């Protein structure tokens, strides 16, 4: 393959439908990124995706001061089916939360569910910032969807409305759960979620409530106490390795 035919390295998420010749308007931030950061000009190539229509080669049609547009050229990769994997987590301090959100996107989480627990020290998150981080993570890591994230909700309410067809891997720091490899040995792929507790851990009452659900699979993440963001990264990685798209 010649250099001129190689796939471009720049990827951009757009909400527009993708089809041959489609004109794709850009917002001000996208124009700034392509024009001033990546130094693209009319005719330059890049890749675009929208989470529905696959990954497309596009070219810059116009980059003005604050407005611009791309033109879709050809399909590069068909839309892939990803493992249906959620991350249920409690809000943590901003810097570590940014890491957790970004890495969850890179590791293939399809939905992030922030929850409040009895020991939650942070009570809210900036959803708009988290959404922006998830878009950036998807653009950088090569996936063709962007995970969803919603507002914070009480853990009890989330569990009460849970679809029992989605198994919930509960990362149990109490020391009573079996190692993760053993716990997942007889499980099968399908809709899964990972539950990570707050920095102070779940309360005894919460542990009892969580493990009382038939869809919950308690697992231990090893002999060391992990920070919430580290635990989320480890748990998602191990689940992907055993049951997801790392196999």
Mean pLDDT comes to 94
The parts where pLDDT drops under 50 for at least 5 residues are none
Strand content: 15-25%
Q: Kindly, what is the distance between the CA atoms of the first and last residues, rounded to a whole number of angstroms?
A: 29 Å
- Percent helix, as a range, is 25-40%
Count of extended strands: 12
Inertia-based shape: elongated
Radius of gyration from the alpha-carbon trace, in angstroms: 20 Å
Number of helices: 7
- Which sequence of SSEs, written as H and E, runs from N to C? EEHEEEEHEHEEHEHEHEH
Written overview of the protein:
With 247 residues, the protein is an alpha/beta fold. It has seven helices and twelve strands. It has helices spanning 28-37, 94-106, 127-141, 155-160, 180-184, 204-211, 228-243, and strands at 11-13, 23-26, 45-49, 55-63, 68-77, 85-89, 111-116, 148-149, 153-154, 167-171, 192-195, 216-219. Strands 6, 7, 8, 9, 10, 11 and 12 form a seven-stranded parallel beta sheet that branches. β7, α3 and β8 (148-149) form a beta-alpha-beta unit. The longest helix has 16 residues, at 228-243. The mean pLDDT is 94.
């Amino acid at each position: 393959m010649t250099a001129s035919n190689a796939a471009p390295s720049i990827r951009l998420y757009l909400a527009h439908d993708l089809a041959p010749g489609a004109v794709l308007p850009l917002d001000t931030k996208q124009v700034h990124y392509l024009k001033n950061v990546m130094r693209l000009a009319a005719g330059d190539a890049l890749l675009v995706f929208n989470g529905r229509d696959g990954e497309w080669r596009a070219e810059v049609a116009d980059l003005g001061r604050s407005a611009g547009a791309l033109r879709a050229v050809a399909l590069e990769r068909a839309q892939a089916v990803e493992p249906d994997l959620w991350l249920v987590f409690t809000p943590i301090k901003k810097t570590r939360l940014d890491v957790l959100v970004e890495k969850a996107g890179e590791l293939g989480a399809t939905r992030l569910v922030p929850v409040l627990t009895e020991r939650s020290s942070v009570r809210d998150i900036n959803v708009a910032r988290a959404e922006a981080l998830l878009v950036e993570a998807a653009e950088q890591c090569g996936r063709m969807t962007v995970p969803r994230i919603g507002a914070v909700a009480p853990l009890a309410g989330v569990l009460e409305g849970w679809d029992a067809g989605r198994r919930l891997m509960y990362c149990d720091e109490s020391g009573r759960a079996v190692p993760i490899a053993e716990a997942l040995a007889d499980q099968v792929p399908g809709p899964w979620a990972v539950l990570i507790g707050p920095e102070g851990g779940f309360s005894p009452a919460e542990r009892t409530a969580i493990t009382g659900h038939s869809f919950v699979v308690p697992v231990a993440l090893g002999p060391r106490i992990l920070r919430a963001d580290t635990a989320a990264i480890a748990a998602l990685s191990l689940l992907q390795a055993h049951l997801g798209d790392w196999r």
